[in-house]
Amino acid sequence: MSVDTDTVKRVAQLARIAVSEEQVETMTGELNTILGFVEQLNEVNIDGVETMTSVLPMAAKQRKDVINDGGMPEDIVANAPLSEDHFFAVPKVVE
Amino acid sequence: MTELTKLTISEAREKLAQKDISSAELTESYIGAIEAANDSLNAYVALTFDQARTMAKASDERLAAGAGGALEGIPLGIKDLFCTKDVHSQACSHILDGFKPRYESAITANLWADGAVMLGKLNMDEFAMGSSNETSYYGSVTNPWRANGSDQPLVPGGSSGGSASAVAAQLCAGATATDTGGSIRQPAAFTGTVGIKPTYGRCSRWGVVAFASSLDQAGPITRSVRDSAIMLKSMASVDEKDTTSANIPVPDYEAAIGKSVKGMRIGIPAEYVVDDMPEEISALWEQGKAWLKDAGAEIVPISLPHTKYALPAYYIVAPAEASSNLARYDGVRYGLRVEGDDITDMYEKTRAAGFGDEVKRRVLIGTYVLSAGYYDAYYLRAQKVRTLIKRDFETVFADGVDAILTPATPSAAFAIGDETMTADPVKMYLNDIFTVTVNMAGLPGISVPAGINRDGLPLGLQVIGKAFDEETLFSVGEVLEQAAGRFSPKPWW
Hints:
The structure holds two protein chains of two kinds. By secondary structure, chain A is mainly alpha-helical. Chain A has a domain at about 5-45: Histone, subunit A (Orthogonal Bundle). Chain A has helices at about 5-15, 20-40, 75; strands at about 85, 85-90. A two-stranded antiparallel ribbon of chain A has the order 1-2. In chain A, strand 1 (about 85) and strand 2 form a beta hairpin. In chain B, helix 8 packs antiparallel against helix 17 (about 470-485), helix 10 packs across helix 12 and helix 10 crosses helix 13 (about 375-400). Chain B is an alpha/beta fold. The longest helix of chain B has 23 residues, at about 375-400. Chain B is globular, with a radius of gyration of 21 Å. Classes of the chains: A mainly alpha, B alpha/beta. Chains A and B meet through helix 1 and helix 2 of A and helix 10, helix 11, helix 12, helix 13 and helix 15 of B.
């Protein structure tokens, strides 16, 4: 499988990365090189093979359903580019 | 470089305990070495000397009171991927501009609790994506090693290039690093240092900036095998905050140093003999087998049939997880924000300006292979292939093999700006051909310097072990180190 420039533009939009026409050209070539490289996986017979979900056998951890952290709004917003009254501030999304 | 910075962690620990030296003296020596070298090597991206001096003073007080921890007074460098409270923690990315976490990673908290001293944050490939440290927003790191008679700057490997360069050049006694596909072991091999990627789940990932969560694992880079055992003991823990942290007590790894390898069965995988393997790499491997045989180990041929599929499967799984993990960098909660016409425009401009080319490539590949219609063909297939890779290892271990010996890298360090690598991303990816299988199977692997090539550059061997059997790696690694000796670059910086 290979990708064309339209696919790259669509994927970039899904990934929320702005790309110029010129970048799309370069990226299309690079992505096709990588996709060409991973193509060899099609040689492998995967019939009846389980999908890996956990690299080592480990049971999912459980904890008590209690509040065990919090009360630190200053810390939470400390690194925000823009915040007001302990809220993260973003451009208007609702008209 | 002074007499004090030459000391390994174990030697410094001894001198500190004997009161021959103080942590304050040791720390000042390292500060002096960093000030003299960092303009040339670019290993550190943030210096925390005030903090280091305060920590050293506190260590000296604890040592005087006879209450020193396992790493009391030992100055360390920390990879920029680890969150350190109120200190630069940016994964060497522009998108995390100005980010100073209000919390400490579990691993660094463990190190400070054991008395270690922080010198600063180390350079790395952006978000740990790279094999040469050339993708860092803060510029390339230079390898302290140079080829004989040449002043061409070489890469230290990556992504933990700053860690490897700083340890080799004696700009810290040891460093933290992380390994998703070879990012501890390849730079260790390129710089003549020791690096271990422990079993997945051995070190907590809490507070370590995520790249590919099912593959990421932290470990140390040091100047001796014993030092790696000492540092890993402190770094590893059972952590409630990481759901994939293994609930297995951390053994005393240092006790494995010097343990005989007599009667151990060391597997040599046929599939690691790759086409056009340089003569010097084959010769190094032969030498390694001979050393282990001399020490009483049995060398047995083994087969890991799915080896060649590990790297292509990795380049689906890792970018897929990265595209998901890196979705959080959107200009809202931390780091860079580039204003736009509306919120989507703001996201797109922020991520376009904040991510470097390699990160963008991987996010796009990851987004593509996870997108509707392609998930089964790529991601699901890759995760099935991963099962087969893991099964290969399980089979040989079940057959009685104790550890596996392979080369660490397909070559010695290459030049910064190498044209074939920059022109073709896949060429760069091939650097991890011997290391990536280990991440795919969640196993531990150690890279130990084993020789110097014709050009005067270090080469490493890798030992792969069973899950949570880091002790065997330390025993085998020590035998290799005793036979090969330790290697230091000649200072030119």
